[in-house]
Structures are given as structure tokens and as C-alpha cells.
Amino acid sequence: MKVICVNGNSLTLEDLVKVSRENYKVELAKEAIERVSKSREAVDEFVEEGKVIYGITTGFGKFSDVLISKDQTKELQRNLIVSDCCGVGKPYSEEIVRAAMLLRVNALAKGFSGIRLSTLNVLIKMLNKGVHPVVPEKGSVGASGDLCPLAHIVLVMLGEGEAFYQGKRMKGFEAMKDAGIETVELIAKEGLALINGTCVLTAVGALAAYDAKMVAKLSDISAAMTVEALNGIVDAYDKRVHEVRPHEGQINCAQNMLNLLAGSKSTTRQGEIRVQDAYTLRCIPQIHGASRDAIDYVIKKVTIELNSATDNPLIFSEDKEVISGGNFHGQPMALVFDFLSIAIAELANVAERRIERLVNPALSRLPAFLVKNGGLNDGLMIPQYVAAALVSENKVLAHPACVDSIPTCANQEDHVSMGSISARQSREILNNVMHVLGIELMTAAQAIEFGAKEKLGKGTKVAYAKVREYVEPVENDRVFHIDMHECYKLVASHELVKAVEEEIGELK
């Protein structure tokens, strides 16, 4: 059985992917169990002593000055969950819900939240048995944590709400019963511990960042195929050029281009056909490299967040102290996911311009729209339109969400991050980018039919062959939507990157 052992401190992005997409099981490390138990003991002491502590013996938000009696603590926690279930929009995918559940488990495992071990184990059982709450995408402002979406997860723990189980959408209590998982009755601090954190927005953005890393590699591959078709000049990728401006992403991308094009008889040297290429070919390392560096930065920040305690208040059991802070605030993730959106949008921007160079006879020696009998056939005219539409949409989506803030909770929460919007936008942009790269692969492969087919480099030869497993060359007009969808599937599967790396080694 494939298992990820969770201790609150060492979860990796790869672990997140294994649990969310490959259904790895989850178990708590021994030291995490001890920390969780000590934290809960501290909370029980505070309740018995009648201490005034936010969210334990008081109301929430603007109601933090309202004292709650000991016999009302269960009702307080239940009311928090049901009143916060206000999400709208379509449900998050099961992989995102699983990722969010894992992140909440890992945050609670740090032992600063005061949850009972038995309650935490219910959440773990739901993950391991595949009970996935129905969580609407919209409704979080990314401060006070992802209150709304996380409440929808907890609602199923109470035997309410809805969940997906074994491919069916059903009532929460039915899913829990069918899976053989006991429901819970929350006691002091537990509701707040479960929903006061950045786990949903981080889950969405973290998976996008993971995929962006692969998409950056794929961008180099699709660009290299375009360079082949346009007899691109390889001097611009010479390592000496990049060593005197030593940005890591730029250096790595230039090396990737040289490795992909190694042995090509279609590429040229400066002065053979022309002195310089247009920027979309010549500046591939600088453009792709900048996005690569941004993606790496995002992943570093995400890895910190994966292993952070993001609720409030925090229980420091060793010191018998409770501190109200602001770790629930999503700004650290909102900023980086907005950055991620810009970085990956640029990969599509430059890819669309390369597509234009391939289909425009004024910019190449290739036939118009890469088809014989042009006029009778439109060829790949409209796929470029689609790429342009997606790139334009990305420019709208890449507007930073975190620069906006609307105060909530009667102005008690007077600055919010809107980080959940940042994360969702990065995911949507990434999907558009994958479509654009699919179109470039299809277009470049068609362009290669006109003279470069037998002259390809070591990496581009593999890439061309893989594309041809999905789409045939274009002789006459057909329903290109089908071809475009096939190339999107090739991009999304990561199969192309794996095939190329098997031939030339790992792309940097």
C-alpha cells in the first residue's frame, strides 16, 4: 500500500500530487499524534478554567467580545460550520478537494490547533476511503482562511452536506455511512481549527504550480519544433551568451534548446539565411527562462505554506499560551499565485506569436496557413485565431486579484487577500496555456512536413513523432477541433515531455 506519513513539517509538492491524484493513503507520524494530543489537553484545561480565549470561549470575528459559556461550546462550533457553508459556483475537482484535505491534516498535525485526535482521524479516513465533499469554488476572500470552502468539507464530517463517493454524488451522511466512517460532534475550538486556514487556495495554486513546471519544459519542446520549421538560428542559444547574464532559468532554457535541436540539419547559423531571428525565436531563453525562475520561486513559497500552521488562535501547549495572530491571511500565497499567473500567461503569449510566424507566409518561406491548395483549403488559419483568443483571455485573468480588498465582518477583517481568486485564475490560465501549446505543437508539426521532416534534431524528432501519434498531417481541411483536443490531451498528460527526456535526458 502506498502511504504518505504526515508529520506537519516535511510535506512536499510531490507528496501532495501523490495523495490528490494517485490516491496514496495518509497516516499520522507518531510525533504528530503526541503534539496533537498535548495541544488538545491544553484547550480542555482552558475551557475548564473558563479563560477568555478567542474562538474557544468567545464568538467569532466581530463577535469576539461575546462570551460563550462552557455548555454552549458545542453549539458554537456547529453554528460556525453551518453558517459558513455559503459557497457558490461549480464544485472543485476531487483532486483539489483531496489536496485541501491533506493540507488541513498536515497543518493540524503540527499541534498548534487544539483539535482532538479522534476528529482529525475522521478527516484522514475520509481521504483514505475516498469520501470527497462537494465544495463550491467561489466564496472565499482568502483571509480568516478559506472559511467558506473548508466549512463545506467539515459539513460532511458532521454527516451533513454532500459528497462524492465511488463516482456518485450523494448526501454526506450516506457517503460516510457507506464508507464506514463515524461522523463527529465538534467541541471547543475544533470547528475553528478545521476551517481557519489557507488550505483550499493553497491546494489550487500548488497543483497549478506543479503543472506549470512541466508546462515550462513543454514550452521549450514546442518552441524547438517551431525553430526547426522556420530554420531558426541556434547561435542565440550559445551558452556564452547566457553566462554573461546568468539567470538560472535563462541558462537552463538555452541548454534545453541546444539539446533538443542537437544534430538538426534544418536549423541555421547566423548569416546563412538571415543575420538575426525575430524575438520569439531568438529570445526564447530570456522569455521562457524568466517564467521558469518565477515558477521556481512560487514553488519555494508554496512548500513553506504546505508545512505551516495557518489557523487562529494558535495553541502553544508547552507554554500554556494561546495567541491570536494572522497566519490565516492568504497574502503570502495570493501574491505568488498572481505572479504565477503572469509567468505562465507569458508562455502562451510568446507561443501564439510563434504560431503566427508559422502560418503567415509574409514571415516565413512556408505556404500560407500550412496547407496545399490554399484558397480551396483554409488550413491552420483558425487555430491561430483560437490561440489569440485564449491569450487575450489570459491577459484579463492575469490581472492581480490580491491588489483588491473588500473589508468583511463589520470591518473587523478590514484587509483580505482574495487569494482564492488568485489561485483559481492561475489554474484557468494554465489550462488556456496548455491549449495554446497544443496548437503550437500541431502547427509546428504541420510546418515540418514542408521540408524539415527528415532533418530534425535528436529531441525534436521524438517530439514530432509523438505528435504524429495523436494527429495526422493535414492534406485538406477537416474538423481541426478534434486535432486540437488531441494535442491538448498530449500536453496535459505530460507524455510528450517524458518521451523526449527518455531520448535526450532530463530537461532542466
From TrEMBL:
GO-annotated molecular function: histidine ammonia-lyase activity
Record PTM text: Contains an active site 4-methylidene-imidazol-5-one (MIO), which is formed autocatalytically by cyclization and dehydration of residues Ala-Ser-Gly.
Keyword Cytoplasm part of the UniProt annotation: yes
Organism lineage: Bacteria, Bacillati, Bacillota, Clostridia, Eubacteriales
Family statement: Belongs to the PAL/histidase family.
EC class (word): lyase
Subcellular location, record wording: Cytoplasm
Gene Ontology terms: cellular component: cytoplasm
Keywords of this entry: Cytoplasm, Histidine metabolism, Lyase
Protein name (database record): Histidine ammonia-lyase
